[in-house]
Amino acid sequence: MGLPEGHCLLSGRRPRTRGTDQASVLFKALADPLGIRLVPLIRHPPGREACFRDLAEEFAMPRARLSHHLRIRVSAGLLTRESRGTWSWYHLVPEPLETLRAPLDDGGPLVGPIAPADNSDAACC
Residue limits of the HTH arsR-type domain (predicted)? Predict the structure, then answer.
């Protein structure tokens, strides 16, 4: 007898998803050191925005690679991009950072109590 789609193999229950789908996308967007470094560089200047030119000066990498990393954060909803003349300006969107807190809050899936697994029927790898 199989479990319904999306249910945990160990507990047999559907995992809590209070913001976890969106949080998963956001955590992935921040999962490398460059992603972590970009957020404060964009958040702290006046106006909470940063020009691509200024960001490129901070990182020793080709501009195309930096552009790719910024595009990932824009796609995840962490940043918005606005073209002004020759340059792109990036703005931090604060709401997604709040979404990242939900899985870490009390009762969230990353800090809530771990349910005992009933693995009497579960086959081990």
Answer: 15-112
